[in-house]
Design brief:
Helix content: over 70%
Number of helices: 5
Largest sheet: none
Number of strands: 0
Structural class: mainly alpha
Order of helices and strands: HHHHH
Amino acid sequence: MTITLKQRAYAGLAFMAAGLIPVLIVGSILRPLPSSFGYFDYAAWFIAAPLLVSGINGALFGGGILEPTVVKRAWLAILRGMLVSVVSFVCVCVISAWDVYTNEYTNFSQTLSLSLIVGFMVVGWQLTIVGMAVGWLLYKLRRPMQGQGNPS
């Protein structure tokens, strides 16, 4: 059976909502803002972009958790949730490294590697735990959602 748009939307929203946890942690680390950094830029790069990326990756890769023919065991759902969180983190690091490369620094690979290393130390472990938890929760919640089908 194929993964429906409704399943992808639920998974995307679940991963986006769970993405608020690391976003709020990073936001608390980065306070106070430097005077040269505007509030709109802060909201766009540190709140909206990571949530959008996690929602898109959750819809693309996490939608299969809600389909019983795709993910049959809880540990596969946990691994898929971890995949979503790691892919989202790498995407956000690439986007931010590209922005820094085009505006301030001259070496993209050094900026990206520094972003990945420091990011994994600061929030990477939290992202993995949150992604695994969301994968497991979606797996556990798919049974009540299946019962809400069309009455026959």
